[in-house]
């Protein structure tokens, strides 16, 4: 009896622990496989799970419209803030639990899922559905990796200079057309008691928008592209000049006090009432200005005096792990959410659409001018163009130059080392 | 073997099973992953031996800073947060008017999430509109105003002040519970013998709080080694990566860079450092307390 009891308990423990092991082991090599679709397909109804960003308020109404018009397909939207979305996607990718469709960015952020075989190849669908006539080609291209279209684009964002008309009128300034003019205006604002640049350095990306424009100015388009592709050395005089200029602006007090640790939101809050004169921001800023209770017509935009604007795309990537019926339903949902019909209905909150043939709202008067500037020439925004390890080093270099821990030369060397380390680790040429 | 021998194992089995499934096996798996170069989704992992560890120790410029910050944070937690917690517990164990209200006030920040605490304090530290600099200006000490989170010299300490406000409630409550188990007799006897309050504290209160100290020190050490949310939300590890701790650097390596091997190696360092500090302490104190 005692031996039986002992054997029973022993077996029970082994069985349960083995069960625990096997479920834990599910994240091992199978993680890279395409098991675990979240879409459910039946003859009657297909559920399409969509992960969207928190700021996409328009998607709730659009999904409700779609569900009402399509009783055989049900959209289920889950929302995440930007960083939680990146984290949730990595965890879901690792555990084989990606949704049917998720919101992500182009460049090195979206490439992770495409290059690891987690996204459906939409190339043929894009061709069959004539996407070039529906979406801006640049937005399609930013979600295309190794010749394969990996996402349905919904935003094409352009980032450039915003100025406060209150400040510019007060100082009798007009939008500059040359770099020298811009620099003279920065000094004029400083002399007039206005902090010129409303940039916050926390997490690096807001100040990076100035860095990349300075790099475009000093390096020129060709070298800038090569630097972003890691096919040219970052230890280049143009990079040194870029960091030297950042240091100069810092030393002259062109940034808000303590900007290195200032959250971008805190920095932009100084821009709305005219405490600062300039912001480098995207097509979405009209909405933010209105939400903060200010008049969008009190602000203007101009092209940073270089040839190209910084752009980035947002898209819905589609899981590679869908049966044919669910894939078709998901594509239908994706094309609907990104369509001119939805854009036109929700234009005030939609952001900058990748869709063509849309009607822009009077509430977002700067959207079209920014897109027009980008149409004349653009480069992929740096934190999506560079590998994330190199991006992190760029942010560190920006801070260290401002804090006088690094000279501009050391910053350029640090960038080159980060690029070389990345290439060595990933065995790229 | 009689059934009586097996009985304790039966009782411990549910907890043991959960511990093995949720803690022990994932820890072993993390250790296994730390020997590979893997992005988390690729079908193959490249075995790299100890190179994730050696890279962190020899080539990673942030890792040594993160270790130092963790140790500094632990030291600060064990002295300042625990010290203030004990002081408040002793104060609020007295028969004071409104002590329950004060207990609630001091405990309240502990129930707030780290991100909320970070948001509150980030705004208070704002260099232009924040409470601290405005207050300094109001009292004529405007020259003392600082960009508190922007200076690598101050940034970690500025975050730690928020951590004190946030965290002091927990040791306070634990010490309060401990203090309420101490009988009055030793104090009465000591008073008759002419002992001073300071002597009573060192020779009665502290020894009789030994069991509570074991728990508070262990909890404080563990939570200070895994500190993450407050730092990440207030500084993002900056400026110039100066406020990273092991958990935040592990997050960046794992979720931003998709370097699962390196992130796992950082986790193992975190486990190792925690074990090296905690096991001798708990072993020594529990052994002593049962003698």
Automatic annotation (TrEMBL), chain A:
SUPFAM superfamilies associated with the record: Periplasmic binding protein-like II (SSF53850)
Q: Name one Pfam family in it.
A: SBP_bac_1
Keywords attached to this Swiss-Prot or TrEMBL record, sorted alphabetically, are: Signal, Transport
Q: Which Gene3D superfamilies match?
A: Periplasmic binding protein-like II (3.40.190.10)
For this UniProt entry, which residues form the secretion signal? 1-24
The organism sits in which domain of life?
A: Bacteria
InterPro entries assigned:
Bact_solute-bd_prot1 (IPR050490), SBP (IPR006059)
Q: Which family does it belong to?
A: Belongs to the bacterial solute-binding protein 1 family.
Per its UniProt record, what PANTHER family does this chain match? ARABINOSE-BINDING PROTEIN-RELATED, OSMOPROTECTIVE COMPOUNDS-BINDING PROTEIN GGTB
Q: What is this protein called?
A: Raffinose/stachyose/melibiose transport system substrate-binding protein
Organism of this sequence: Paenibacillus algorifonticola
Its organism's taxonomic lineage begins at: Bacteria, Bacillati, Bacillota, Bacilli, Bacillales
From TrEMBL, chain B:
Q: Which UniProt keywords apply?
A: Cell membrane, Membrane, Transmembrane, Transmembrane helix, Transport
One cellular component term from this protein's GO annotations in UniProt: plasma membrane
Q: Where in the cell is it found?
A: Cell membrane
GO BP field:
transmembrane transport
Domain named ABC transmembrane type-1 is located at 67-281
- One protein family per Pfam: BPD_transp_1
Q: Which residue windows are coiled coil?
A: none
Q: Its membrane topology, per UniProt?
A: Multi-pass membrane protein
CDD domains per the record?
Answer: TM_PBP2 (cd06261)
Q: List the transmembrane segments.
A: 9-32, 71-92, 104-124, 154-179, 200-222, 265-284
Instruction: Return the InterPro entries for the record.
Output: ABC_transporter_permease, MetI-like, MetI-like_sf
Q: Which family does it belong to?
A: Belongs to the binding-protein-dependent transport system permease family.
Name of the protein: Raffinose/stachyose/melibiose transport system permease protein
